[in-house]
Amino acid sequence: MASNSGPKSLNRSQNNGSSNTSNNSDKQVIHTTSSSKSSSGHPPVRSKPNSAKRSVTPNSRAANPNNNDDSEPARVRVAVRVRPRDAEDLNSEADYADCVELQPELKRLKLRKNNWNADSYKFDEVFTDSASQRRVYEVVAKPVVESVINGYNGTIMAYGQTGTGKTYTMGRLGKHDPSERGIMVRSLEDILANTSPTLDTVEISYLQLYLESIQDLLAPEKNNIPIAEDPKTGEVSLPGAAVVKIRDLDQFLQLVQIGESNRHAANTKMNTESSRSHAILMVYIQRSSLGKADNEVSPQDRDSKRSMGNNMNTLHKSKLLIVDLAGSERIAKSGAEGHMLEETKFINLSLTSLGKCINALAENSSHIPTRDSKLTRMLRDSFGGSARTSLIITIGPSARHHAETSSTIMFGQRAMKVVNMLKLKEEFDYESLCRKLENQVDYLIAENERQQKIREDDKEEMEKKLIEYRNSFAEVESSLDARSQLFENENNRLVSENQRLLDELKLQKDRNDVLHDQVARLEMSLKQSKQNQLEGSSYQKMLADTTQMYEKKIAELMEQIEDEHSQIERAEDQLAKVKQMLSDHQKSTERQEKQEIDDLKDKLQKMCQVYDKTVNDFQSLKTENVELLSEKATSSEELQKLTQKLSAEEKQRKHMEDEFYKLKKMVAENVNGNGDKSSTMKEINGKVHPGFGNSLSFSRSFQQREAIPRVSKIFEEVGLEKTIAMLKSQDLEVQIHAVKAVANLAAEDSNQEKIVEEGGLDALLMLLGSSENTTIHRVASGAIANLAMSEKNQGLIMSKGGAHLLASIASKTDDPQTLRMVAGAIANLCGNQKLHASLKEDGAIKALLGMGGSGNSDVIAQIARGMANFAKCESRGTVQGYRKGRSLLFEDGALPWLIDNCATNSSSTRRHIELALCHLAQNDENAPDFVSSGSVKELMRISSESTREDIRNLAKKTLKLNPMFQSEMEC
Ligand SMILES: Nc1ncnc2c1ncn2[C@@H]1O[C@H](COP(=O)(O)OP(=O)(O)OP(=O)(O)O)[C@@H](O)[C@H]1O
């Protein structure tokens, strides 16, 4: 009930006109604002009357969809209840029909005006005399109770004539029969069931307003309790009243019982049990949002908590007033006198005042006379305020009280027009928050002190450890410095050592290659020597024949001398002696030569062994580079020893030659005395080739150890010209001896020019073309190979069809030695770029590659050398710009041959092949062949795996410069 001093906005009346007729009442509107509300228009409350366990409805606080600042309009709800007829009514044979006609299904009540006329009134509910206490509670009180539990203020009030059942409806305790329990008990039952005994608080005050004095029914000594009003909110409170916290329903029942006993009751004529005071039960509920799970707190509460920075305890404070008004009877009718009259006046005063306020509210008056009585002051919030209010008006059935009944009905009708604005009251629990913060501060202070103590205790220990750590760190640091320096020194040493080893390795490789070439040549010489050795017997025979021829000539001379100087016996004797001496010496020489040959054979055998050992050593050197130095030293030492031995042998041989010439000279001198015949010998000696007998290279000397004494005699006799002429001999044996002699001479550079001049080259080529003898082929090819080392001779060989002849020989034989010689000859020719086209045209390149089919490593080595020579010349020509076009080698299948043989075990051969590939790859016009044949991979392998750094660099450079190779590498 808002007063003029209260907020104007809270004064609302439903402007739907009068409801005293059925037509008007149909226009009434009941406002509902929440979909969660029950059918009665209020949020549901779970009722557990018989349950000892108290629980909170999870969503009970979500009833108000509006936020805290919004108000919700709610009209005062009014129900009418008719008391059953009592004994007096029965005695007077009063009938309802004489006064009211109930239409509960229509929620209407007809008040009979006379026998033919009645007024119909619409209420929110109409209870007949048979309505149960439970139903009345469910319909009238429970919605208000739910609202209060949810934080709104609420009022449930009974208004009616004395004896019509107000106290029965509101205050019945039902101690013996729970079904008899009235609204007070049932309300507390629901409140306790839906609040938390630990988090929420339920308290009550029980008062009566008697003679405009507020008395405390729980503390009767408290009388005339003043009403306090908050000037800002208009909140009414009774600070002097006892407030008792309710633990359970039994406690509440006891308290109410106590209060009832203290309630003043006076007999009146109308009702000896009549209540002469307004009884007011005030229930205070305080609910905390703390300690609840989010699903137990309404969204609004959660939002509110968040907006407060969380952890702020939100308190919902609400108040329920359950008012059992004193009876509203007429003074005259009640017959009250004296004190009772005074009571009645005050009762009527307060009720009249309440009626006026309600009328004013119903008529939307600007003045609400709330201050006219303490009752209206106390109920200020219940009518026109922020509380949800339900009013139950009680009427009797008797027509005798028609006027009171009518008055009561009209009171109820007017009350129905009052609309309150419900407002959720929420405040923060600063007290508990303060307590909590204080506790937290205490805890933090204690924790801080504890931590401080721990830190102080640890500080000294930490400082000690810090000093220790620093010392340790310094030690470690200096140790690290020392180790770092050590590592750096060691690293530098290793780097330089590595570089030195690399240099040494490179040197050793170079030496190895040189040595390998020497060994190859040595091997070739040895093989030739072997061959010569095999043919030694023929030379011996020839020597014997020669000797025999000399003896014959000597004999002839002697006969001539005898004929001419037969008389000179002394001379004959002397000659005989000389002859004897010569004979002896010849025999001796033969023995010596035989012995020499045997010795040379032994030495050759030993040398072969040394050679084999050297080869083995070199093989080991290839795989174990570490042993290279020692092995090479051994080999070199052995070779040096052999060279020295051979040199000694050569000296010995020369010595024997000199002795032999001396003897012959002596013979000659002794024969003719004046040396006339010596001219023949001189002539012979003069025809000896100037190079013959000169100091030769190691290999050359070695080859000639057996042959030279005999060959020298041949040349002494026939000379180079005749020897070359002997190449054309019909006698195969002579041809063979001659070709071998020429071949031996051709091995020496200084002899080559002379050989060519004397027609040796032509003769050799002729032999290649005409002879079918394998030895001739092999030896002649070898000789041509040697001659082909000279650029001048290369041109001659080619111009004389040498390449074609060599190719022809290659196609005829499968003798590896012959093939090796032929391949070597062609390989030498390949080193002359001017001859390339002819070589190709003459089939020499094809023949060269074809010889690889022999599988002989020596032949393959010569082919590889030829390819390298050819490719190198082409590359040089291309770079210098005098050559263009794709390599001539490719047409004869050189590239696949090179790729196929690239993995050879021979390092020398492999090096030649790698060189050939790299040179070929330098010509851009060869690149498509490389790409299409997949040979770029081999170039990539060479660039990273070749044992020769210069070849690796050449391959890298080639790959880098050619875009086709680059794109192929990216693929
Ligand atoms: N609905 C009811 N069912 C049965 N008995 C009832 C009912 N209503 C009232 N009574 C009985 O009627 C009598 C009067 O009721 P009650 O004392 O509650 O009236 P009242 O309106 O409170 O009167 P007063 O204003 O004088 O206090 C009581 O004996 C009560 O038990």
TrEMBL record:
Superkingdom as given in the UniProt entry: Eukaryota
Question: Which GO BP terms apply?
Answer: microtubule-based movement; mitotic spindle assembly; spindle elongation
Coiled coil feature spans = 434-659
Task: Identify the main location.
Answer: cytoplasm
The segment(s) forming the Kinesin motor domain are 75-418
Q: Which PROSITE patterns match?
A: ARM_REPEAT, KINESIN_MOTOR_1, KINESIN_MOTOR_2
Any idea which UniProt keywords this protein has? Answer: ATP-binding, Coiled coil, Cytoplasm, Cytoskeleton, Microtubule, Motor protein, Nucleotide-binding, Repeat
* Organism of this sequence: Papaver nudicaule
Q: What is the protein name for this chain?
A: Kinesin-like protein
Xref: InterPro entries:
ARM-like (IPR011989), ARM-type_fold (IPR016024), Armadillo (IPR000225), KIF11-like (IPR047149), Kinesin_motor_CS (IPR019821), Kinesin_motor_dom (IPR001752), Kinesin_motor_dom_sf (IPR036961), P-loop_NTPase (IPR027417)
GO MF annotations for this entry? ATP binding; microtubule binding; plus-end-directed microtubule motor activity
Q: Where are the ARM repeats?
A: 718-760, 759-802
